[in-house]
Amino acid sequence: MVLRVMRELGGFFDPKSVAVIGATPTPGKVGNIVIENLYGEGYPGKVFLVNPNHKTILGMPCYRSILDCPGKVDLAVIVVPATLVPAVMEESGRKGVKAAVIISAGFSEGGEEGKAREKDLLSIAAEHKMKFVGPNSLGVIAPHARMNASFARTTPLKGPIAFFSQSGAFCTAAIEYSVREMLGFSAFVSSGNKADIDDSDLIRHFASDEKTTCIAAYMESTRDGQAFFDALSDASLRKPIVILKAGRTERGARAAKSHTGALAGSDSAYEGVFKQTGVYRAKTMYELFDAAQALANQPPMDGEGIAVVTNAGGMGVIATDFANDLGLQLAELSSETLDEIRKACPPTWNPGNPVDIIGDADTARYANVLTAVGKAPEVKAIMVIAARQAATNLFQIAKWIAITARISGKPTVACFAGIFDQESEQFLDSRGIPVMSVPERGITALHALSERGKWLRKKGVEIPRRAPNGDMEELPN
After folding, report:
1. If you classify domain 299-458 with CATH, what class do you get?
2. Are strands 214-219 and 241-245 parallel, antiparallel or unpaired?
3. What is the pLDDT of residues 428-462, one digit of tens each?
4. Closest-CA residue to 74 (of 52, 108, 44, 32)
5. 158: phi then psi, degrees, rounded to nearest 5
6. pLDDT tens string for the chain (477 positions)?
7. Whether the predicted model's global pTM rises above the 0.70 cut
8. If residue 280 lies in a helix (H) or strand (E), which one and from where to where?
9. Residue 445: enclosing H or E segment and its boundaries?
10. Max CA separation in the chain (angstroms)
């Protein structure tokens, strides 16, 4: 089943040729933005432009029909009025196209006529053994393949998170946010109306995708509850999954129905499915991507007990309170660990966890304390908070955070409190260590890793571990 789905959906994420049907030279039009995105990202495959009203577009040949395109077409991106889409799909099927992205709107989200038109698309696709995303989709982006077949204004960075969304507008917001936060994606899919390819198909595909280490999604409804449950059950054993399921409240469910034309379903049913299948449920956009970033790059927690190391006492208190709210336990530090920490701290240091190493903490103090908690068997994960103080050298501290994570093999997150330091953040991001701006977000990341570890242990699955790495070439001078 998985291999079949991988074959069926492979054309969406690594096509050797793309046809843009509804291409236009008019700036600002969807058919023009798709062209700009494909060429602007340096897509290495062949691009065919299709529009019967033009012989050339932007100096490139334009064909009357996809049937006139020379050579094979792997992916058709359809940007024509809804009434023309069935005929275009029919021609694409005759051309031998097996994958299509239907950006055009005017289907089941728009009333009975649109629903009937959507059924026609399914019949045509079945006849020609085609699969399609949409309709009413923003498009599909495969950053590793340098393919942006969408009308989003920005392309996400490449990385290990596969993301799909029922809402196109959520996609555009997520892309802008992810670039600012330096999050990377293996795939980015606007699933639209999900008439053909739905959540279950995408989950099964990404579960076997080598470029993907975490699956994240925004969704409002699903078409087939049993297929959704089965896909999650299978995929969660191999990849962590984070879902922001909107429509939790009665008002939210009504809004979701109005938005997508589909019933959102019982929220308690979704909650039950997520708990049974080990899905981490996010309730905010921050939670969705903070959890996904941690799960994509960090090993799950193998047991209970986090250490919070901070040079700002108030931030440590906030982290402690929020951890308690989520049921995340702080480690009871052993006397041996406390003795090691005490050697690095001034006589006024107050033993405990959070480990408040005082506002005048320099790089050496951070390094020694992190070494101590990294070695402590009672500590299963580490959160490092750094606020801007006179003695704070953020980049040097970032290096010691990375060293501690490598040597200890423990899940590690950083919180640079209210600070944006691009050099330090890029350094940690490139090493898979999430960097948050407030303590609550760091705690959310660790909570996701804790829940993943609990679920894997419950299922009898061995906890993946980061191999200890003693390479010291990153040691600060």
Report:
1. alpha beta
2. parallel
3. 999 999 999 999 999 999 999 999 999 999 999 98
4. 44
5. -85, 145
6. 444 444 579 999 999 999 999 999 999 999 999 999 999 999 999 999 999 999 999 999 999 999 999 999 999 999 999 999 999 999 999 999 999 999 999 999 888 999 999 999 999 999 999 999 999 999 999 999 999 999 999 999 999 999 999 999 999 999 999 999 999 999 999 999 999 999 999 999 999 999 999 999 999 989 899 999 999 999 999 999 999 999 765 554 455 444 444 444 688 999 999 999 999 999 999 999 999 999 999 999 999 999 999 999 999 999 999 999 999 999 999 999 999 999 999 998 999 999 999 999 999 999 999 999 999 999 999 999 999 988 889 999 999 999 999 999 999 999 999 888 899 999 999 999 999 999 999 999 999 999 999 999 999 998 887 644 333 334 443
7. yes
8. strand 280-282
9. helix 439-458
10. 81
User: Taking the alpha carbons of 153, 156, 162, 163 in that order, is the dihedral positive or negative?
Assistant: negative
Give the helix ranges, DSSP H, for 103-154.
Answer: 112-128
Strand pairing class (60-63; 241-245): unpaired
How far, in Å, CA of 224 to CA of 259, rounded? Answer: 19
Sequence-separated (6 or more) residues with CB below 8 Å from residue 90? 124, 128
CB proximity list for 358: less than 8 A, separation 6 or greater: 311, 345, 346, 348, 349
Distance of CA 386 to the CA centre of its chain: 26
Residues in the chain: 477
Q: Are strands 17-21 and 241-245 parallel, antiparallel or unpaired?
A: unpaired
Which of 244, 226, 105 shows the shortest CA–CA distance to 165?
A: 244
Give the number of C-alpha atoms closer than 13 A to the C-alpha of residue 438, restricted to the C-beta side.
7
If you search the block for the tokens 């020694």, which residue do you land on? 368
CATH 3.40.50.261 domain position(s) in the chain: 2-294, 299-458
Kindly list the distances between the CA atom of residue 115 and the CA atoms of 130, 183, 219, in Å, as whole numbers in the listed order: 19, 36, 20
CA 219 to chain centre: 13
Q: Compute the distance between CA of residue 136 and CA of residue 110 in angstroms, rounded to an integer.
A: 10
Which pair of structure tokens corresponds to residue 121? 């698309």
Terminal Cα distance for the chain, rounded: 53
Residue of 145, 199, 128 whose CA lies nearest to 37? 145
Fold annotation for 2-294: Rossmann fold (3.40.50)
Are 448 and 295 within 8 A, CB to CB?
A: yes
Q: Could you tell me which of 422, 420, 421, 402 has the C-alpha nearest to residue 412?
A: 402
DSSP one-letter string for 167-232: -HHHHHHHHHHHHHHT-EEEEEEE-TT-SSS-HHHHHHHHHT-TT-SEEEEEES--S-HHHHHHHH
